[in-house]
Design a protein that fits this description.
The chain has seven helices and no strands. It is mainly α. It folds into two domains: 2-92, Hypothetical Protein Yqey, Chain: A, domain1 (Orthogonal Bundle); 101-152, Arc Repressor Mutant, subunit A (Orthogonal Bundle), CATH 1.10.10. The longest helix has 24 residues, at 51-74.
Length: 153
């Protein structure tokens, strides 16, 4: 719940500062979290989503905006790309520091050892362990091929 409190405090501060761009992004974050809370409660989770799921939501939002910014840049709409990049900056304030390549490789090796994975069929177990421990800290799109390479060799 600490992350939710940080987001709420930032929202209140943006209102006080009359920072419209930041306020808009923080409201989008709150709306996405509340939307997932509603889905979770409908599925029987009375507490809504937990901290890990909130990190997942933030990571997804950041990735969506990165893709949008790239598309806008390719289309010559630099004004829209800059707005997307500004939103990414606000979202990433609440995400933990991203692991570098070496730390990601070490985490993959540790997860493989923890699960006892020895072939590609165990990839789902390894990815499950990584997602449980490193949500918001890793780009799982790039970690997936790394896990696959280690399990296939």
């Amino acid at each position: 719940m600490e992350l939710r409190n940080r987001i709420s405090a930032a929202l209140k501060q943006a209102m006080k500062d009359k920072d419209a761009a930041r306020l808009s992004t923080l409201r989008l974050i709150n709306a996405a979290i509340k939307d997932k809370d509603i889905d979770a409660r409908a599925a029987g989770q009375d507490d809504g989503v937990d901290e890990g799921e909130v990190l997942g939501i933030l990571g997804k939002m950041s990735k969506q905006r990165s893709e949008s910014a790239r598309t806008y840049e390719e289309g010559g709409r630099l004004d829209l790309a800059e707005r997307e990049l500004a939103e990414i900056g606000v979202i990433e304030e609440f995400l933990p520091k991203q692991l570098d390549e070496a730390a990601s490789a070490k985490a993959v090796d540790t997860a493989i050892a923890e699960v006892g994975a020895d072939n590609i069929r165990d990839m789902g177990k390894v990815m499950g362990v990584l997602k449980a421990k490193y949500t918001g800290q890793m780009d799982f799109g790039s970690v997936g091929p790394m896990v696959k390479d280690r399990l296939c060799s």
